[in-house]
Amino acid sequence: MGEGNLVVFKGTVDGITVLLDNQADFEQVISHFKQKLEESKQFFKGSKISIRFKGRSLSKEQQEELMDLLAHQNILNISFVHQFEGEEAHYDKDWIWIKDQLESKQGSLTHFHYGIVRSGNHIDYKGNVIVLGDVNPGGLITAGGNVIILGSLKGKVHAGLDHSYPHPFIISEVMDPIQIGIGNIIAQAPRGESFGSKDGKDLQIAYLNEEQIYVDVLDAKSLNHMLR
User: Fold this and answer.
1) Closest to 174 measured CA to CA, from 191, 186, 157
2) Where are the domains of the chain?
3) Which of 20, 34, 66, 172 is the most buried (most CB within 10 A)?
4) pLDDT value, residue 154
């Protein structure tokens, strides 16, 4: 891309695709992204959209910088951030049901948190909570609906506090919480043990079945068990 086109916005059915130049210095790209946001302020005002970044592979630090920028801007009303280019999409098919839940009547109430939930931080929301980052020991999330953590869960999470959500769940890349709660049920892992896998290879889901919390790999089998 030329210097004036380091960042290009393209409209899609449900949002925008942001094309990032793969040769320019990343700080230049970030600067142009901020400029494009300002130029598009009136166009996007009041719209609820999803956003997808394409054109270059980003390091974890660069992804976090973009997420932090999105968290502190007040131009785009973002409903969903798609997977970054270059990341494996081995669990995309399992997101179809999850996406349906987030787009349901209750799912329209979704709070996004960009970055780490550190010790002493408490996120409390009446609907769903999506965290693009880790939940550290001492961090706490309480939600009326579902909780999705695109990172490691090592703190405390309680989902499904609003009983109008029929099948509340907690999803995390690494499921190693101090304590989890779903609805009226609270569970703690035995000392020295973990609720789920720590390798981050497969998304983990915690859900209720017959008043008991289960933690499984997110796949069709676990979803069917949850929905029985």
Assistant:
1) 157
2) 7-81, 93-227
3) 172
4) 93
- Residue 227 phi/psi, 5° resolution? -90, 0
CATH number for region 7-81: 3.30.160
Q: What are the tens digits of pLDDT across the range 155-173?
A: 999 999 999 888 899 999 8
∠ CA 180-185-187, nearest 5°, is: 40
Under DSSP, the state recorded for 135 is B
- Say if domain 93-227 classifies as CATH 2.160.20.70: yes
- Encoded amino acid at 101, one letter: Q
117 in helix, strand or coil? strand
> Can you list the pairs that 126-131 forms with residues at least 24 positions away whose Cβ atoms lie under 8 Å?
126/162, 127/162, 128/102
Could you identify the residue written with the tokens 């130029």?
39
Residue count of the chain: 228
Give the residue among 97, 14, 7, 4 at the shortest CA–CA distance from 49. 14
Q: Are 185 and 168 in contact (CB under 8 A)?
A: no
* Among 58-67, 161-170, 197-206, the range of highest mean pLDDT: 161-170
Cα separation, 106 vs 104, in Å, equals: 5
Rounded to 5 degrees, what are φ and ψ at 108?
-65, -15
**Sequence-ordered strand ranges (E) for the chain:** 7-11, 15-20, 48-54, 77-81, 110-114, 122-125, 128-132, 140-143, 147-153, 156-159, 169-175, 179-182, 185-187, 204-209, 212-217
Cβ neighbours, 10 Å, residue 81: 20
